[in-house]
Task: structure prediction
Amino acid sequence: MMMGCDMTTDDDRRIVIAKDMASLQGEVEDLRKLVNTLLTIIMEEADGVQSGAAPVHAGTPRAGISM
Result:
């Protein structure tokens, strides 16, 4: 009888682990999309001038310069 209980416990653990792994895979995919989005934004607006987010100082070139 003890062996039957162990199998159920093992099966339950496997089910819980499988659910946790599926959840973590979803989180990894969401994070991957976020990172790609952030990298795209960084590459498109490296100096911040295009969006007006960064202040432009007098005499500063507007194009081709990125810090």
About this structure: The helical segments are 2-44. The first helix runs from residue 2 to 44.
